[in-house]
Amino acid sequence: MKRKYAFLAAILSGVLLLIILLPAAAAEDLSVGRYLIDIPADKKLTVRAAPSSSSETIDYLLANETVEIVQTVNGWAMARQNGKFGWFDARYAQLQQAYDCAVLLADISSANATSVNFSQLKAAGVGGVILRLGVSINGGQVIAADSNFASYYEKAREADLYVGVYFASSAVTADAIEKEANWVREQLGTQVFNLSLPVFYRPTTAEQKALSSAQNTLLVSAFCRDIESAGFTAGIYLPADWTSKNMDFSALSSYVRWIADTGDYCNFTHSFDIWQYTSSDSMDGVSGSVGLSYLFTDIVKEPSEPISTEPSSSTEVPSETDPIPEESTTELLPDLPSHRQGDFVTVREPGCSTWGEERAYCLDCGALLHIRLLPPVGHKDSRWEVLREASTEEGGILVRHCDVCGEICKAQRTQPLGSTHTHVLTDWSYIDAVKESLLRPLSREEGMTGDGGSQEQIFACTVDREKVMTCADCGEIVAVYADTPAAHVPEDQPVITDADCETDGHSRLFCQDCGAVIEDIITPAYGHYVGEWEIIREATLEAAGERQGVCLRCGKTVTEEIPKLEGVRGDVNGDGKVTSADARLILRFSVQLDKPASDAVRLLADVDENGSVNTADARKALRIAVGLDAE
Fold first, then answer.
1. What pLDDT sits at residue 131?
2. Do 294 and 185 have their domain in common?
């Protein structure tokens, strides 16, 4: 037993201590690509700040880790590890996937970079830039251009950099994506923009990710087709956590893929062309920050036309990430949300004498948009049946039943046998259906009851009507017919109620007789638009949090729940389990060699739940990893 614990203690010490593996003699330069670290399981590979054994040690690589190698010099390979690039002995890298090239790209918007010296970017090793052309908000209802795009484009071309553009989309409907694509084509058509890199579609909202794979695929392919029809190369920007549940990548294989993943290597499970390894980095010559990416495939097109120097008519643009300034928000927010109405669906079939109802819903979000009534279809009567035979004393009764509902819908009197009187029939006239029916109940014993004294013409649209035919000479009711309710009489103007953040709006058409809603056109509530949230209570693994903000539409203070965090305590690298790699990272957090990427990661690193991250957490994580403790 003592030997067993001594062995486990040795494992614990081996993971927590820093083991330096000195690089050996120089190996041949490696091609750009993805590599596996091929070293013994009990060793670590030193990562240095420069390609020299005398350079500062900045990190370590473990056996079977994967890295993206972007450059090799004299047997030293440069790859990203724990958020920064470092150098290690290239002999310990085993090729997994080769890339065509490695061009450093910077993506730039006026929201993050207020001024840029493109010549300095070029001198720092940047080979190309992807500039934000514009951005949309509120599901694509509002579109604005990046205020610095035109000047950035000209200066980037003057610095001899490759240039591409991206559009930050918020569209969730086909109409909105078409509007965005048309806007992009118009903007690129105002000047002779010659792009070496693609025009990228870049989704920015959680609503877009929440769409089905089929919906996203249709939207993206529609945008890209429109861009290609204008003569540009189309591309898609996506976070690495988008999967086949979010988009059908096989259907979009012809478009360039730009994948954002701030980890040590690109975790995207499909093929890709560009890897954005940081979305915010500082560089010489940039006031603010830029995103940095590596282009790994040969997709660069050489521009052939001169650059136009016409001034741009672009206006200042809101950031796709920063809250919109309050003074401009009220002008940009749309009055109504955009919905696409589908076909009407019957929710209640009309009966012989009852009203039906049909509804129409939004094709995109399913919201109810339209209600209208369907008129009764009327009775379908069968052949005459004798209900009472005529005699010498009294006449007989003939009836007809409805083939649909079975009720008696027609009744007619016949003259007594031997009668010489001939009825002179009048036109049909309606009687008050609210009074006792002449058709129901109607029995053999009771026969036909009632008289013509209560006849009056009404148009009741909510109850069955009965019309009668009388004899002009004797006044007797000769025939009765069950008719449908009268048609509604619409008022002259609909009653309109505007939608707001919480309440649906309506355009309602009422019946002036009975007051029923004949037709209801619904504008779903906007939902609150909060520019900046204040965290009231952070979410934890055990409990949900809470945030609060002011709606920029209505000024109301809105409170929302923040879902409790997902994850396993001790799993700080996000692979779903607690391993020795997690223990190593927690140890680095505890001695401040690294910082947790987020508060959520910090909470996961606090394995013993005492409110701080220290070596005890690393030790407990390792005990979980080797099975000594339960998760």
1. 94
2. yes
